[in-house]
Design goal:
By secondary structure, this protein is an alpha+beta fold. The protein is about 35% helix and about 15% strand. It has helices at about 45-50, 50-65, 75-85; strands at about 20-30, 30-40.
Length: about 90
């Protein structure tokens, strides 16, 4: 534990251990603040972290690619593009 003094704008230097890291600042109560090192996930990618089946599928595909297991038939890009056109954004 260390003692720090907040400057006139309420800022406290956390030190080099926290340098260039994203942190969450949680006010536990009026006398306590909790600092937690965090990772940020872009909103457009959040669905993958919330969908275990999709995440498992992606990880399985990455493992297959690493081991050289590729499809014997290439995708039909014209057919895929037609399907994509029918999807809502």
């Amino acid at each position: 534990m260390s003692t720090k003094i907040a400057d006139s704008k309420g800022r406290v230097a956390l030190g080099p251990r926290f340098a260039n890291q994203t942190v969450l600042v949680e006010e536990v109560d009026p006398t306590e603040v909790r600092i937690t090192i965090a990772a940020v996930v872009p909103k457009r990618e959040l669905w993958l972290h919330q969908n275990r089946a999709a995440q498992d599928s992606v990880l399985r595909g990455l493992a297959q690619a690493r081991s050289g297991k590729f499809s014997k038939t290439p995708p039909n890009l014209d057919q895929d593009a037609a399907i994509a056109e029918r999807l809502d954004d």
